[in-house]
Write a structure and sequence with these properties.
The protein is an alpha/beta fold. It is 39% helix and 16% strand. The chain has 14 helices and 16 strands. The strands form three sheets. The chain has a seven-stranded parallel β-sheet with strand order 5-6-4-7-8-1-9, sandwiched between helices. Strands 12-13-11-14-15-10-16 form a seven-stranded parallel β-sheet, with helices on both faces. A two-stranded antiparallel sheet has the order 2-3. Helix 12 links the parallel strand 14 and strand 15. 42% of the residues are buried.
């Protein structure tokens, strides 16, 4: 897959000790987005970087590694007039992804032994060189004068399009931008999708004499080549999913997306009544401890069927997910007529088929006129979404995908 590959090796773009650690950790070579952006972020003068790449192509390392490299371990953690001064800040829209990014960063501690990393929680704040934070928590830390961003060297925003178009996220970004007063302070934006207004907002944050470097893709390059997309028309979608799950012959983690909490809960209750063992991951109305426990079990592979809303649509990296089902097609919020949300669709199905894996995504339609959603997606991404014929076809596709992925992982393990 050409969009993933790079001719460079890690030693071409990062220090030798970090390059060796990356290979030991199983990252054989940088992806295209990593090889393009890491040298650019490191280079002086420090530009504002707007980067876009497909889901599952290594965006997290693309901003995380140069962020760690910008930190000066010899500079002591100091107190400013508004609190302690981190050197680096990563902004991520949900707590689960903050934890995921923190754990990834901790894997590289041997290359950065004197650099401290923490998740920014106002209830239990740990002073550190690198702070990973949600927009809400960041605003609390700023408003309570618990952190001072005047000495920030680098600020990275993951899932930037969502954060920029969200009220709290936008306020957090503008607050950081206000605190960063010189062009040596660098801002990075990473996402799989961008709206035009997001790009415009980013350009408001940059300093007058600071360059903006864009790494953007046309829509037709955003869908993953290894992702098999299907649809089926079903009058009773909940009963159909139960029949489908009962008929699966391939063991693979499955994520099911619903548009509303009530519909997700209805599916959960029905599947439990039929002796399946699904879990439900919701947004703000689920206690944080419960969300954390479910997310951890899901990452460990202890949950095979996860029902969720858009809370899990972005950024969650779990290569064991082989199957994604859209119980509902994602719709544009507040649109006068039902309009399929092409960006959210891409983020949802991107939970499978990550980093050159093969995955399967199935879209459920309840009315013939909903076929218009499929047609719009096909036109926008210049891709083909086939109609599912029967369970035999689905099992065959899932089995082939799992075989290909297992072979790739075996080859990768042998070459490290």
């Amino acid at each position: 897959m050409a969009y993933l590959k790079s001719k460079k090796q890690w030693s071409d773009i990062v220090p030798e000790d970090l390059a060796k650690l990356l290979v030991q950790q199983g990252y054989r070579a940088p992806s295209r987005i990593q090889s393009l952006t890491i040298p650019t972020i490191k280079a002086k003068p420090h530009a504002v970087v707007i980067a876009q790449s497909q889901n599952g192509t290594g965006k997290t390392l693309a901003f995380l590694l140069p962020t760690l490299l910008r930190i000066d371990k010899n500079e002591p953690l100091t107190e400013g007039k508004n609190g302690f001064c981190p050197q680096a800040l990563v902004l991520i829209h949900v707590k689960e992804l903050c934890t995921q990014t923190y754990l990834i960063a901790k894997k590289f501690e041997p290359a950065f032994p004197d650099i401290t990393i923490s998740v920014g929680d106002p209830r239990n704040l740990t002073k550190s060189h690198l702070l990973i934070c949600t927009p809400g928590n960041l605003l609390t830390l700023i408003n309570k004068r618990m952190i001072d961003l005047s000495k920030l060297k680098i600020f990275a925003v993951d899932e930037a399009d969502y954060v920029l178009t969200n009220d709290v996220g936008n306020k957090a970004i503008l607050a950081v931008g206000k605190a960063m007063t010189n062009k040596e302070q660098q801002v990075l934006f990473f996402s799989a999708t961008y709206a035009e207004k997001s790009i415009d907002t980013i350009k408001l944050i940059k300093k007058p004499d600071q360059d903006v470097l864009e790494f953007l893709l046309p829509p037709e390059k955003l869908t993953l080549e290894g992702l098999l997309q299907l649809y089926t028309l079903q009058k009773n979608k909940i009963e159909y999913i139960e029949t489908l799950l009962s008929s699966l012959e391939v063991e693979t983690q499955t994520v099911i997306f619903a548009n509303t909490r009530s519909y997700a809960l209805k599916l959960l209750e029905y599947l439990v009544s039929k002796e399946h063992k699904p879990a439900l991951l919701m947004g703000g109305d689920m206690p944080p401890e419960e969300r954390d426990a479910i997310f951890t079990k899901f990452k460990k592979g202890e949950i095979q069927i996860l029902i969720t809303t858009n809370v899990l649509a972005r950024g969650v990296d779990n290569r064991s997910v082989g199957f994604v089902i859209n119980l509902d097609m994602p719709l544009v919020y507040g649109a006068r007529n039902d309009e399929v949300d092409v960006d959210m669709y891409l983020h949802r199905i991107g939970r499978t088929g990550r980093f050159a894996d093969v995955g399967v995504a199935l879209n459920l339609l309840s009315r013939p006129e909903e076929k218009a959603y499929i047609e719009k997606l096909e036109a926008h991404y210049k891709t083909k979404i086939e109609e599912l014929k029967d369970m035999k076809q689905l099992n065959k596709l899932l089995a082939e995908a799992k075989e290909i992925n297992n072979l790739k992982r075996k080859e990768n393990a042998e070459s490290v």
